[in-house]
Recover the amino acids of this structure.
């Protein structure tokens, strides 16, 4: 599955990670799933005021389709990109932007024109990765089941949304730190558990991982 | 007890594969009410997510499994900690989680954004339904 550029993946990694840093992005799909690692709140796109008041069936359907089509993405990260790639990058961009326009009227910490300019310079591989980054999320049912078994009581819908968002950001931190560890060790290819463990250890030192017990200083 | 349910058999099954049997068994488990940790609870989602964040398009199954373990620990610890600071007895609110995440500015901003967006979507859907009703009555 996926791209043909596996060997050059590590190179595009660097490029992509940098692009990620410079282009804050936050809009999730209409289902409100949490997405996006480090980005400051908000949204990306233009000053076009949100058309939430008017009934816009096409926009809503489009949004619902994309929200529900998340399951289809399981066919492979490149699956959806390939399907859309034929339509051209611009259509995909616009579709994503429409999706964000209707939700993120107020949250604009990113200049949408700059965002569009950066998106236009993406290679297809970067675009598919970016798309996966935006669209991926945890299944609400699974998350709710997990939360209920942990907390022992009913869990509200906003709670699942919030926890899913936080969890996704945590995954992002781990993967990014794992890549940093990999480059330090001059490794290539997929991230291995050893990198992940080292990344987890470093995140613990930074304090980004909740610790259960109080630190035992002198045993 | 562990050997009884079909869900547990998937744990004893071919290891290392991380097969996504989670979903089918999850339906059976739903009636059970308890969550026995099946492999691959978030397999599909996690693979896409890791690719999006910079991993290989095809992440290693061991890595995905380890990531899921870490993630479930993270969620569990976060929920337990927020239960400790919970304002309402026995009920977890989003404010508790926000209190926990306050130190991490990115996550905090993200949480606020998600909640606000949720509100907006709810309002939008309500407005959409109202407009639909209006249109329906007009005809």
């Amino acid at each position: 599955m996926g791209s043909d550029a596996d060997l050059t993946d590590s190179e595009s990694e660097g490029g992509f990670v940098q692009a990620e840093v410079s282009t804050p992005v936050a809009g999730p799909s209409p289902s409100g799933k949490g997405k996006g690692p480090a980005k400051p709140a908000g949204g990306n796109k233009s000053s076009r005021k949100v058309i939430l008041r008017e009934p816009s069936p096409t926009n809503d359907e489009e949004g619902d389709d994309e929200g529900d089509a998340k399951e289809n993405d399981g066919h492979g990260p490149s699956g959806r990109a390939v399907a859309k790639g034929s339509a051209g990058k611009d259509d995909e961009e616009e579709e994503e932007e429409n999706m964000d326009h209707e939700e993120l009227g107020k949250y604009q910490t990113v200049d949408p024109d700059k965002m569009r300019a950066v998106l236009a310079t993406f290679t297809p591989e970067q675009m598919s990765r970016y798309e996966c980054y935006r669209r991926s999320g945890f299944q609400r049912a699974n998350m709710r089941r997990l939360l209920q078994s942990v907390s022992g009581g009913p869990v509200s819908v906003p709670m699942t949304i919030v926890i899913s968002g936080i969890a996704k950001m945590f995954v992002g931190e781990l993967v990014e730190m794992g890549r940093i560890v990999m480059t330090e060790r001059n490794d290539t290819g997929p991230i291995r558990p050893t990198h992940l463990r080292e990344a987890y250890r470093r995140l613990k030192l930074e304090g980004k991982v909740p610790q259960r017990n109080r630190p035992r200083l002198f045993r | 007890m562990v050997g009884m349910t079909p869900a547990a058999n998937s744990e004893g099954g071919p290891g290392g594969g991380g097969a996504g049997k989670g979903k089918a068994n999850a339906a059976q488990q739903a009636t059970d009410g308890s969550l026995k940790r099946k492999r691959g609870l978030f397999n599909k989602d996690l693979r896409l997510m890791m690719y999006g964040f910079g991993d290989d398009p095809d992440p290693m199954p061991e890595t995905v499994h380890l990531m899921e373990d870490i993630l479930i620990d993270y969620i569990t610890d976060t929920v337990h900690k927020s239960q400790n600071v919970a304002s309402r007895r026995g009920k977890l609110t989003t404010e508790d989680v926000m209190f926990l995440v306050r130190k991490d500015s990115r996550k905090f901003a993200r949480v606020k954004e998600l909640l606000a967006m949720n509100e907006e979507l709810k309002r939008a859907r309500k407005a959409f339904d109202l407009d639909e009703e209006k249109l329906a009555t007009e005809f």
